[in-house]
Amino acid sequence: MTITINGTTGIAGVDGSASTPAVQGTDTNTGVFFGTDTVTIATGGTAAVTVDSGQRTKFPTTIGVGNAAPSTSGSGITFPATVSASSDANTLDDYEEGTWTPIIGGSGGQSGQSYGTRNGTYVKVGKIVVASFDATLSAKGTLSGTYVQIKGLPFTIQTTQIQSGAPLYFVSLATNWITLNLQTEENTTNAYVWGMTAAGVSRTYPAASDIGNSTQLAGILVYQST
């Protein structure tokens, strides 16, 4: 091995390996080793990060972003539980999957309800939330207010944006409708249910009287969070 002081040669003739890096500290299986047009950092005798001549970086397992502890299962990028939001529009600063509990409610509140089925899942990428749900009442209780809503969305809806979902699957309404859909309520975790009872040029909104004791509503809503 050749070491020069002026830096023109550096360490020469020793590539090393993951188990015996060419450059190491007191931990002899942790350091830097070299390959053909590659530089690799090894930790504990295992290749951790490799950079090649195309400026490509390879991580064999997971990456932690924003001081998040990398996942111990599978491979991927781990984001912190609380978003460390970036002001750069081109920076992905959050990814999350989870569950939520949908409520078939009224814009003025609800009480005395029970459910036979109530499931909700979501995926959040940056500010975009894809929330799906399936809720079946066994007793509708009391829905107050002018509008029927789906409540309990997993993230707050962005202010000054009206966003609509895919057509809802519905069963056992108390009245006749030909289509139902969702419309977000800004700066809340609620979405209005709207629809049409016949062909027309504008929508209308179901009321509490349109919901039955065994009504099922299911669907998906894509919206932008705050």
Regions with pLDDT < 50 over 5+ consecutive residues? 1-5
Helix-strand category: mainly beta
**CATH architecture name of one domain:** Sandwich
Largest sheet: 5 strands, antiparallel
From the 3D structure, determine the CATH topology of one domain.
Answer: Immunoglobulin-like
Taken in chain order, the helices and strands follow as: EEEEEEEEEEEEEEEEEE
Overall number of strands: 18
Work out the radius of gyration.
28 Å
Mean pLDDT score: 90
Q: What proportion of the residues form beta strands (DSSP E)?
A: 35-45%
Biggest β-sheet: strands ordered side by side in the sheet:
1-2-3-4-5
Secondary structure tally, helices = 0
Structure description:
With 226 residues, the protein is mostly beta strands. The protein has a domain at 98-224: Immunoglobulin-like, CATH 2.60.40. 0% of the residues lie in helices and 42% in strands. The protein has no helices and 18 strands. Strands 1-2-3-4-5 form a five-stranded antiparallel sheet, with no helix packed on it. A hairpin with a 2-residue loop joins strand 2 (31-35) and strand 3. It is elongated and about 80 Å long. The termini are far apart. The model is unreliable at 1-5 (pLDDT under 50).
